[in-house]
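Page 47, continued from p. 46.
Same chain as before, 287 aa.
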Amino acid sequence: MKLIYPILMLISLAVLLVSCSDLVEPPPTKATEPTIHKTGILDKNSPDFHGNLVRSDGWSFSACIRCHSADYSGGTAGESCLKCHTQDNGPEACNTCHGNFNDPSMIAPPRDVNGNTSTDSLGVGAHYQHLYGNDLGSDIECSTCHIVPKDYLDPGHIDTGLPAEVVFSNNAIVNLGLNASYDHVSGSCINTYCHGNFEFLKDSSDYKFIYTADKMVGNNNKPVQFNKVDGTQAVCGSCHDLPPKGHIESDISNCGNVGCHIGIVDSDGNIIDQEKHINGKKNVRGN
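Result:
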């Protein structure tokens, strides 16, 4: 019996030690750096590039703000977005999602919201030719075809899917252009003043002798496709005849040399004062 008690005590102690060991936390392992981003987050060629993540989230920056703060200066993430997004409004600048990222003055495609740069894409099309490379008239403002948001969260901007809304104003709707519209399927502008939907009445003109009818009219041209950028959509004479219907016959070489449009066109019919073409007015004798 004397031996039994010590053995029982040893067994009880062993059980107690085993039970207590279950309550002790295992030694900590080496901590790993927490991150929600994958390796390619800064690589423009990676599917994990952060621009692709923003696109997939409907162009919302709310996820970015949660960690990088509302002004994108770092926040809890400790990494400022403004190191790369140096333009006004940081990541919310217009040319972050479309246009030239390195040139804040070029906020329209080439480079549409899906990253396309070819004019074959309707998101790219003739944006450059209208806004930056226009040699037929004054460069067209974005607001001529779109409602330009003051803030990227304004209604009608990122709250609706593609294609982008086309809402005509400015020189698109003067004269007879009030019924202007855009066909998203064909990529065609319809009934716009800037493509020849106009009339100028003889009765209201100071140069009635130039008329052969009670009015001069344009051709109300319907460009075939916004993404057909080969020069055929805006050749001289496509938006109005040379001269326009209702105008007396005249050789184009006379228009700017000895005719009524001196200082506006040259002897070859090239526009030399872009402010005086496609502007809603009849510009005669340099006025």
